Amino acid sequence: MAYEVEAPKYVRLAQTIQRRIEDGTYPPGTRVPSENQLVQAFGMSRPTVVRALELLKRDGWLESRQGYGTIVRGRPAVVEQKDRRGRDALERDESRTQGRLVEVGEVFVPARVASALGLPKRAEVLVRRFLVEDGGEAAELVSSYFPAGLAEGTGLASDEALSGSVREHLEARRKVRFDHVTERVSARLPEASEAEFLALPEGVPVLSVLVIACDATGQVLQVSDVLLPADRQELEDTYRLN
Known about the structure:
The chain is of the alpha+beta class. It has 2 domains: 9-72, Winged helix-like DNA-binding domain superfamily/Winged helix DNA-binding domain (Arc Repressor Mutant, subunit A, Orthogonal Bundle), CATH 1.10.10.10; 85-232, Chorismate lyase-like (Chorismate lyase, 3-Layer(aba) Sandwich). It is built from 7 helices and 8 strands; from the N terminus they run αααββαβαββαβαββ. A hairpin with a 2-residue loop joins strand 4 (124-134) and strand 5.
């Protein structure tokens, strides 16, 4: 399968600015061009420029200083390993994870996943559904969906637990490369089968983390729907104020 979809404009712009930081065009401690200058230089809209700069700030390449503008920090010395459900879904080794594989096979793609994959409703995709357990109790249900044809020649269609991660399987056997992830968090009531897997009483909602993993061109390689019992979750984040 050929992947020809371009990455989102803001991702491409962020990658260009990152390369300029790495090659010394924008040295650490200096200011990056203003938003107006970037708009004119790259022919992109202001929202695209702002989003690219925010992405670089989030990842530690840039920082804002009041009264001075946006300055270059350089290559982050340490990449923070935050508790991100997307990374876990991509890099989990099923054979070493407490839990069990509860479903593997072709299914009609759910509407929320079809939109992310760019597929029509009722299209069939491969799903791997893994129930993660903690101390014998269901902790999360991870349903990973793959575009048609991408799983061919891999072990993803096997009903045995994978040795190694899904990401490793795809990168090694399909010669693709994962580049970035988008996570969408929402709350909803679980479907009957989801509630049964998670042992949820009637009426208890779940937090859904929709993990959309792409290559550098923006082509979606995998979509995982990570379901967490809402009555057992507490969201917390710590961040700097500029």
